[in-house]
Each structure stands twice: as structure tokens, then as C-alpha cells.
# Entry
Amino acid sequence: MNVYEGSLVGTGLKAALVVARFNSLVTEQLLVGAADALRRHGVADGDIDVFRCPGTFELPAILRRVVATGRYDAVVALGAVIRGGTPHFEYVSAEVTKGVAHVAMEAGCAVAMGVLTCDSMEQALERAGVKAGNKGAEAAAAAVEQANVLRAIARAPARKAE
# Structure
């Protein structure tokens, strides 16, 4: 049995963080957490690029273009959608999730989802590091691991057909 898995060592990886400006009180904390996690896992500060877009709905379009450059091993989408009194929350949440998933499926690099979909600002701030954990940091760590497993797959020897 051959097992291929990624490590959490980011040395030598190039990473991009795509962050929405809307709900910046939350998204800036996600950005801080993601960048810190990348550094703690060995990604050099000079190998981390940040791309900003207006809102979470716009994330997939920028994400797709960043991935298409081929310059990155790992790309992380960071945003926050907070429930309001209209159906807008459901539409934006569903579309950004589908958009990020679509980009991830087609990407030649690791793509991680660090988009919060929360019922309240308080809940969003908690998930952005105010109380316990930072979902931006968790997404960045997942991107490092995914990038490494993708590298392992690329290096795996071809098996003979029987």
C-alpha cells in the first residue's frame, strides 16, 4: 500500500491570499490569521501575496485569475457573509461557495476556502480569532497541506497496468 499525504511544512511554497474588503472588521482578522499561519508553517513573507476585491461575491472571479497565473502553490479565499433580514445572505453564500469550489476543481494548485457564513457579526468575529481560533489561519494551514499532497501526487511513480 502506498500512502500519499501532505505535510504542514510550507518552506518553498508561494501563496496568495484573496481577501474581500466588505465586512473588513472580520476579513482583516482572517487575513492576519492566514498570513501568520503561512509564516508559522515556513512560507517566507516575500512568498505571500495579497489580492483584495470589493466583496465576498467577487472572490471567485479574482481567485480564478490569481490561480490562472500559475505562480502559486496555494491560494486562500477569505471573506465574510453575515445574515441580514433579506434572502441576500443565501444567494451570496451559495454562489461564493460554488465559485470557490469550481475554481478549486480546475486549479493546478491548492485552493482553500476561508469564507465565513455567519448569522451575526458577533459570530463572525468569534470565528475570526476574537474568542477561539481563526478560520483564516485554518484555511491557510489546509492550503499548505493540500499543496504538499498535490506535489506528492505529481512525484508519485507511475504504476504498471496489470
User: Anything to note?
Assistant: The beta strands are 15-20, 48-53, 74-82, 110-118. The chain has a mean pLDDT of 95. Residues 15-153 form a domain with the Rossmann fold fold (CATH 3.40.50.960). The chain is about 45% helix and 20% strand.
